[in-house]
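We modelled the chain as a single entity of 208 amino acids. Its sequence is:
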Amino acid sequence: MYLTKRQRELLDYLKEYISVNGYSPTFEEIADHFHFRSKGTVYKHIQNLKKKGFITKDWNRSRSVELISNMFESTIVRLPLLGIVQAGQPIEAVTQNETVSVPSDLVRKGRHYVLRVQGDSMIEEQIRDGDFVIVKEQPQAENGDVVIALIDGNEVTIKKFFRENGNVRLQPANPVLDPIVVPADSVMIQGIVVGIMRKFLADGNAAN
């Protein structure tokens, strides 16, 4: 489960505050620390951290935020950044000699790599322009998987995969765009998307 930049900053603040004081800060203290204009902003961030499983909170008591410790135990692995994949029309992915730090709980067994997404055809799958996708390299996919597909041996795209009557439909997750329908033998699956990171996570040096 990825965090926004502000959520990560807030989580780090909570962790440090609780470590020093033995109890959590109040909403007022959090708002003052981050210069939020209202406690409502704090509430929204705390609610999101709770939904994502990083904290617990008794809403009837002040200073009742508690960290869920196992969420901090993920190790970091470095994966190769192989270039850019177009989420609109296909383009060739560009090889780069860079790596990206990734939480290990986003990685499954097998070889993985990272691509930066360009375009907005996958927005309904919460994959946005500038995001980084973690790809598990494999030659097969099931209907509905989000895949990295090589078309005609030279163009690469990210789409949802469907088999249909001897063809492959590469479906964008954007209602204003049309699918790409091609013969099955002209498509080679490069891998399936197993994780997504916002651009602030993928600076090539750190994952937070």
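As a brief sanity check on the tokenised model: The first helix runs from residue 5 to 21. Residues 200-208 have pLDDT under 50 and may be disordered.
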